Amino acid sequence: MKMILSIATMGFGLLSVSFLPALAAPPALVSTNAVTADSIVRDAGYADVKTPILLAFLAEVDNRPLYVEDALLAMELTNHNWRLANVYRHPKERADFRHWMVATVTDTPYTGKQDYDHRPTEADVEKFLKDTWWEFRASRNFRLLRGEVYSDNWKRAFGYQPNHEFSTFAANIPRANEVVQYERESPVFQSKIILRDRGDALLSALDGGRQIQEPSAPPPGMVVDPVPAHYWLNIALTNGSVYRLGISSQGDLMYVAVGGDDGCRCGDRYDVTDAAKGKVARVMRQLDQDLRQEIVSAPLPLVYAVGTVDDGGTLSGIARMFYGDASKWRKIYEANRKTIKNPNAIGGGLKLTIPKLQ
Question: CA 96 to CA 17: how far, in whole Å?
């Protein structure tokens, strides 16, 4: 018996998936680590395969969440011909969706698998990738969780190293519709909540990671000091996880936090593209304005860290910010004599008590 399933996919219309007769009961739910060429061939029901070779694998998820695994497979057949196939499965859905499937798209040219009477050449492989819509990145409206190209297998199958790799920069940036709430990692005074439209604008500018890129390596022998992130954000997602993101005030550098240590101020560094840099910098200025308003509206006295917002880096600048009068700087100086060694030179991060004016 053949079953046909139609679902909307990737904005290309309807996807018709043909299920070949099952060879056995549906496989149990497995992790992506258990994906093998043999398991794909078994699920797809191919009986004419001599040697299956797994070329590439990706796992992606959207905000429903729908979890999808895709694989690119080369197969040497028992008659010494070859086959290329683009297969996928939904391992976290009901049992009949957990099989690896070869897909065809209706109403437009599409190739889910292709047989050859020879070992596929590089030109054959590139044409198949185009005809099967394989891209080394997440599908539209999906987020890449894992993407791997198996170079040794690729060379084993075709005799050359692949010239493709997954774009790691697009792997982890959440979309606005995945977010429950944005927060500053370190609360300042009254609140740590970031306005929804500010956070959404930031993620929109980054476009799921498509507007950031890994920086080029410095010339040999040159040491480049990283620019520290101006904000660390905690982004609570609809799936219950929290995503940590750091970004500079100029919008020119981006850090994606790594590891599970909440105290870790570290991560992978990325460059924001020129196309997005202005948008990101504008959001950062808005966040600074929000924070500045929160600070100056807080009741006095309070403790303020120099440089939390643009305060000029001077006592007169801080006095202008809190009192509206730069000449009141002596009031702050008198309240912090034990801390301030030189009123003409105060360092960023120095914590000052801002007294209430009598």
Answer: 12
Helix (H) or strand (E) holding 56: strand 49-61
Which residue type is seen at 237? L
Gap between the Cα atoms of 93 and 225, Å rounded:
46
Q: Which parts of the chain register pLDDT below 50?
A: 1-33, 170-171, 259-264
Instruction: Spell out the domains of the chain, with CATH numbers in brackets.
Output: 3-166 (no CATH), 176-296 (no CATH), 302-354 (3.10.350.10)
H-run or E-run covering 317: helix 315-323
Q: What's the confidence (pLDDT) of residue 239?
A: 74
Task: Say if residues 200 and 284 touch (Cβ distance below 8 Å).
Answer: no
pLDDT of residue 168: 54
The answer, yes or no, to whether the previous bond of 228 is cis (omega within 30 of 0) is: no
CA distance 177 to 141: 10
Q: What is the pLDDT of residue 28?
A: 30
Q: What is the pLDDT of residue 8?
A: 30
Classify 1 as helix, strand or coil: coil
Give the integer Cα–Cα distance in Å for 113 and 71: 12
Q: List phi, psi (to 5°) of 160.
A: -145, 160
Angle formed by the axes of helices 315-323 and 274-296, to 10°? 70
From the list 319, 306, 307, 302, the residue with the least C-alpha distance to 355 is 302
